């Protein structure tokens, strides 16, 4: 079985604009880079993942990805996440990939066991595994076997859209729940929760 992780990355200089009230531009870029490195390291440490493909228009992000042994695709045209992911999925399909796992680059607490559990849930053909965020709204992980089984519908309400689309094509749909995977950092409250959790973990 050939499983590929796909990680879309926004340009660092545009990352986390909703944190502008609490972080400087340099701090926001550093946060985005740190989280990307974390996700790349986690994916690389899971032996079931054959390879990682990072798609971005940011040269520094692509260089970091290559440092972690990932393949890269330069995003072209107008930035549109769903179209970019479809192009990346088509690349993986040409490489004879049998399944894809889409992970955002802003999951600071995701752990190797989260990735391994998602892959285990997706062992059968025509399966979609979803993990949502803390608001039960977005999609923080999307596994599908085979690649391209459903279209991508990221944006507000994507978790339920992806679930409905998977059911419409007759896929087996599974949901993976993890407090670690639920946390993505978009707004100041997310950052505050992250800092609180890191203080808890470090104090254990």
Describe the sheet with the most strands. 7 strands, mixed
Examine the coordinates and then state which fold CATH places here, giving the name of the CATH topology. Spore Coat Polysaccharide Biosynthesis Protein SpsA, Chain A
Assess the beta-strand content as a share of residues.
15-25%
| Chain-averaged pLDDT | 92
Instruction: Calculate the terminal CA-CA distance, rounded to whole Å.
Output: 38 Å
Spatial order of the strands in the main sheet? Answer: 3-2-1-4-6-5-7
Question: Helix and strand layout, with pairings?
Answer:
Elements: E1 3-9, H1 25-44, E2 49-56, H2 59-67, E3 71-74, H3 81-94, E4 99-102, H4 112-121, E5 127-132, E6 139-145, H5 158-168, E7 172-175, H6 179-182, H7 188-203
Parallel strand pairs: 1-2, 1-4, 2-3, 5-7
Antiparallel strand pairs: 4-6, 5-6
Structural write-up:
The chain is α/β, with parallel strands linked by helices and about 200 residues long. It has one domain (about 5-204): Spore Coat Polysaccharide Biosynthesis Protein SpsA, Chain A (Alpha-Beta Complex), CATH 3.90.550.10. It contains 7 helices and 7 strands; from the N terminus they run E-H-E-H-E-H-E-H-E-E-H-E-H-H. It has helices spanning about 25-45, 60-65, 80-95, 110-120, 160-170, 180, 190-204, and strands at about 5-10, 50-55, 70-75, 100, 125-130, 140-145, 170-175. The protein has a 7-stranded mixed beta sheet, with helices on both faces. Helix 1 links the parallel strand 1 and strand 2 (about 50-55). It is globular and about 45 Å long. The termini are far apart. About 40% of the residues are buried. The model has no long low-confidence stretch (mean pLDDT about 90).
């Amino acid at each position: 079985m050939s499983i590929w992780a796909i990680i879309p990355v926004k340009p660092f200089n545009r990352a986390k604009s909703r944190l502008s009230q609490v972080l400087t531009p340099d701090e926001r870029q550093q946060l985005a880079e740190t989280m990307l490195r974390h996700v790349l390291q986690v994916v690389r440490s899971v032996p079931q993942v054959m390879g990682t493909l990072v798609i971005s228009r940011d040269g520094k992000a692509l260089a970091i990805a290559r440092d972690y042994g990932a393949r890269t695709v330069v995003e072209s045209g107008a930035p549109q996440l769903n179209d970019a992911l479809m192009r990346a999925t088509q690349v993986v399909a040409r490489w004879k990939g049998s399944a894809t796992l889409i992970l955002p680059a802003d999951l600071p607490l995701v752990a190797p066991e989260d990735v391994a559990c998602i892959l285990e849930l997706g062992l059968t053909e025509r399966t979609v595994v979803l993990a949502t965020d803390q608001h039960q709204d977005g999609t923080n992980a999307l596994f599908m076997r085979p690649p391209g089984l459903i279209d991508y519908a990221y944006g507000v309400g994507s978790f339920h859209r992806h679930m409905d689309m998977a059911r419409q094509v007759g896929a087996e749909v599974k949901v993976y729940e993890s407090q670690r995977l639920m946390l993505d950092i978009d707004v100041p409250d997310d950052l505050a929760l992250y800092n609180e959790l890191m203080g808890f973990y470090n104090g254990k």
